[in-house]
Amino acid sequence: MPDEMNQQQTQQTPLEQAPQQVQPAQQVQQPPIQQPGVAVQQPVATVGTSGLAVAGLVLGILAFLLSFIPLMNLGSIIMGLLGLVLAVVGLISTKNGKQKGKGIAIAGIILSILALAVVFLMYGTAAAVSDSSKSEGSATSATQQTAQTSAAQEAPAQTSAAAEAATSAEPSQDAAAASATEEAASEPAAAEASQAQISIDGVRLGQDYDGNEIAIVSYTWTNTTDETTAFAYNYIARAYQNGVEITDFTFSDDVNQDGYSANVKPGGTTSFEWPYPIKDHSDLTVEIQEIISFDNTIIAEQTFKLE
After folding, report:
1. Which of 88, 107, 122 is the last residue of a domain?
2. Which of 11, 179, 218, 276 has CB atoms 3.0–4.6 Å from 201's, for a disulfide?
C-alpha cells in the first residue's frame, strides 16, 4: 500500500507543478512618435495658368497676322486693343503667385502692340501719299492753266504776225519752199524717235550664206534709261515688202550684228545692222516698236527704195 501511494504522488506532482500558460496581452496601437525638427508635409495646391493671359496671346497673334492684309486689318485694330487689355490684366493676376502665365501675358502684349503699329503705319503712309499726289496734281493744274492763259494772250499777236508774213511773202519764196519739201520727200532721211533715241540710218544690198540677195538695214540706238540694257531686250525691228512682213531669218558674214544684243550703259550709243531676205527690189518699209506695248506704237519708221 505505501508503495502504491508513493507512485500516485509521484505521478501527480508533475501535473501540479507545471507552469500555467500566460495569455498574450492585447496590443495597443500607439500614435507615431514625431521626431523633433522634422516638418510634416502638407498637400500643395496646384497653381493654374491665367486664362486672361492665354486669351490675350491668341487675340494678339490673330491681330498681328491680319494687320498686313488691307481692309481686313481694320478688324485687327479691335482684336489688338482687346488682346492688349486681356494680356495686361492677365499679367497683373500672375504677380501674386496664384496663377502662372507671365511669359504668355507679355507675349500677348507685344503682339497686340505690333499689330496696332503696323495698321496705323500702313494707313498713315497711304494718307501721306494721297495728300502728296493731290498737291502735285494741284500744282500741275495751276501750271497748265498759267501756260494756257499765256498762250491765249500770245495767240492774237502771233496770228497777226503770221498773216503779215504770209501777205508780204513773194511767189518765189513759196516756190523755193515747195521745192525743198519735194527734195526732202524724195531723199530718205534717218527717222529718229525723240524719246527712244533710235534711228534707221540706211539700207544696202548683200548676200547670205546661200548666195540669196538680202537687204541689210543699219540702226543707231542710244540708251536713255537709268539701267544697263540692250536694244534686243526692249525693241523689235520689223521689215515689210509689198505690205507683207518679212519673217524669215538669214545670216551673212557681211553683217555687223554685234551691237544688237550688246549691253549699253545709260547714255551710251551703239550701231548695228540686220539682214532681211528679199524677193524683189520693191520698196522696203522698216518699223521699230517696243517688245512690250499695249497700243503697238511705232517708235520709228522709214521706207527705202532698193536699187
Report:
1. 122
2. 218
